[in-house]
Amino acid sequence: MGRLRIWDIILLALVALMVVVFILLGNWQVQRLGWKLDLIEQVETRAYGAPVDATPDDLALYTRVRVGGTYQFDDTLRIKAVTELGPGFWVMTPLRGDAFIVWINRGFVPTGVDPDELRRDEGYQDVIGLVRNSVPEGTLLEKNDPQAGRWYSADVPVMSAQAGLDNIAPYFIDAERKVQDASWPRGGMTQLTFRNTHLAYALTWYAMAVLLAAAVAYIIYTRRKSQA
Fold first, then answer.
1. What CA–CA distances, in Å, run from 29 to 16, 35, 43, 194?
2. Does residue 188 contact residue 176 with C-beta atoms inside 8 Å?
3. Is 178 helix (H, G, I), strand (E, B) or coil?
4. DSSP 3-state assignment of 75?
5. d(C-alpha 141, C-alpha 139), whole Å
6. How far apart are alpha carbons 133 and 153 in whole angstroms?
7. Closest listed residue to residue 75, CA positions, set 146, 24, 22, 145
8. What is the model's pTM?
């Protein structure tokens, strides 16, 4: 009997731990829901308005901006990417303006396309696009290797240091697609729709916590009733 009570206590402790974990997972999904709704609001309020002039200072994510300058094609680098068009690269080129330099994501190019075949917009360019935040180091699975020229995220400070550039804006710009043809790179591919299932996940975790607690309570009740 004493051994049975010890196992009962252990099982109740494990169940209590699982209930707490389920609740914490539900709370985490609620936090993610708030973040996702804020992100969607940012896109809706900033990405579709009239462009504002870019500045050398921080700008809000997804703000639609306009900037003028000349591309420095010799400093172009490619960032590994997978899009709706398949695997390939984002083509990043610094744009030198009168007051500052900003990195421009000129668009996507599929794997296998000869870099010499990419469109080069020579001379002074008026670029319109969306502000994106610098992404340090790389991805969870692949880290940037600047010395080897392997890039998996747009780490603006490191990219600028590697190219020997200064007076750089702390963000980069996803350029809109202004050439409606089959040439590469293909701009205007910023993801502006986001899957939002966090509420469903949160309710699922909370339901599991409630059901588990209710099941254990029912078992305890029936056992006590049978022993009465």
1. 20, 10, 21, 15
2. yes
3. coil
4. helix
5. 5
6. 11
7. 146
8. 0.74
DSSP symbol at 157: H
Taking each continuous run of H as one helix and of E as one strand, the counts in the chain are 3, 7
Q: Please, which residues bridge with residue 175 across strands?
A: 129
169 close to 99: Cβ distance less than 8 angstroms: no
| Alpha-helical regions (H) of 115-197 | 156-163
The region that residue 85 occupies, defined by phi over 0 for left and psi between -120 and 50 for alpha, beta otherwise, is alpha
Helices 198-227, 2-46: inter-axial angle, 10-degree rounding:
160
Provide the β-strand partners of residue 85: none
Beta carbons of 33 and 206 less than 8 angstroms apart? no
Residue 220's H or E segment, with its range, is helix 198-227
Residue 104 token pair = 């421009």
Cis before 110 (ω within 30):
no
What is the number of other CB atoms lying within 10 angstroms of the CB of residue 222?
Answer: 10
Three-state DSSP class for 180?
coil
- DSSP classification of residue 26: H
pLDDT by residue (tens digit) across 96-122?
998 999 999 999 999 988 877 888 989
C-alpha R_g of the chain: 26
- pLDDT, one tens digit per residue, over 72-98 is 999 999 999 999 899 999 999 999 998
Query: Which tokens hold the place of 26?
Result: 């539900």
The residue type of 29 is Q
CA–CA dist 195, 199 (Å, integer): 11
